[in-house]
Amino acid sequence: MKAKGTVLKYGSDIDTDVIIPARYLNTSDPKELAKHCMEDSKQDINAKKAPFSQRVKVGDILVADKNFGCGSSREHAPIAIKACGVSCVIAKTFARIFYRNSINIGLPILECPEAVDNINDGDIVSVNFDDGTITNETTKKTFQAQPFPPFMQEIIECGGLINKINKKFDEEKK
Fold first, then answer.
1. Model confidence over 54-79: pLDDT tens digits?
2. Helical residues (DSSP H) of 73-173, grouped into ranges
3. Cα–Cα distance between 123 and 125 in angstroms, integer?
4. d(Cα 68, Cα 96) in Å, to the nearest integer?
5. Distance separating alpha carbons of residues 101 and 13, to the nearest angstrom
6. Is the per-residue pLDDT at 142 higher than 90?
């Protein structure tokens, strides 16, 4: 499994209220959540950047510093990111519940502090999930993240835990 995209970079402690503000939790529609993903990011507002939802393109890679996804345990946060078309999130560290929710909905996320320190907003990055290799195509630097174990790769490839379970039940019916 591989991904390649343009980087949208964020700082530390991006909480789930920034990823998807609570005022939009009255829906679980991924397309609707995607419209409001990162809407309240102070980094975008302070830098006078266009909103995330207007900048993100299918395949893009979100890179953040430490403690990405802290805050509440809502699944809406990784769903919103995935629905925007983000192919991968790379951070120094993730909040544990966000990490688990991301894998459960099929959003690949990798921890790699060295990569985060050497990737800038707008860089082109490729990721090989099979071996954990992260390559900054812009600078030609390569970094090593811990690859997913096979069972997690299968969850991600199936598009999430529920899809993997459904696939297993369908195979057992045959």
1. 889 999 999 999 999 998 878 899 99
2. 76-83, 96-105, 113-117, 150-157, 161-173
3. 6
4. 9
5. 17
6. yes
